[in-house]
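Risk register update: the risk of archive-format incompatibility is retired. Evidence:
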Amino acid sequence: MEKSEARKLIEQARAAWDAEDWLRAAESYERVLAHFPDLNASAVWWYDAALAHKFLRNWAKAYDLGREAAARAPRGEGDPAYWNLGIAATIQRDWATAREAWTGFGIELPDGEGQIDGRFGLACVRLDTGGEREVVWIERLCPTRGRVVNVPVSGGRRYGEIVVHDGEPKGERVVDGSTYPVFDELLLFEASRLPTLEVTVAAGEAADLEALVDLFTEHGFGAEPASSVRLLCACCSEGTHEQKRDVDAGAQQVSLAAPEDEARQLLDRWAGGATATGRNWSGLTVVG
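Archived output:
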């Protein structure tokens, strides 16, 4: 390939990029890189080609091209080539490459080999289940994986599932003066076995609802009163939103994550508590 042809292909790649035609952009970059893999500008082309395949959710290609991009990136300086490779390697379950990528980015990981199951703090993830979008809390297991610790109220998702999320925050949640990033989900990494149930409960005080949530949490399950759910428009969801963890008293629906038999036992235990006043439940239904 002549350099003049390569220049035209790079121009085509950039035009396709501006038009968000990711496949055409990636193909143009790859044609040039097949002949000029190690020019000074090639590191950027490798990165853009890998990123285009990330946008396409072609994780095998994002992984292959991402390894080339990371091999040409400076280590320990937060270069995004390492972050994108870390995501792709995680999705491919190549833990050695994922660990190398996060270290190359400049992140300190827990000691060990294989799957990364650390404690990277709380964050939020915007789930997208075929058009329904919902922001839930996660416990971050690594820079790009998190376990869902809310009971999702949108269909098709469950408490306890592990999701892979993007690295660029799209919004913030502020709770008690602390700020947490909101990331977009990339894919479901590990499904949860806990079904989602709905039940109508009545509670005389907010503390009664909090006691129900605490009881299910103590047993490794989830409970989400309807009064704790906030509806936001897309614009507000991607901005900074101050969030309270309050729940209201009175009759309301509660989403639960637990096996049905155990949910019934815990609901009966909650309703018959020694200090319970006006607690009752009805209409337990499996919804997902």
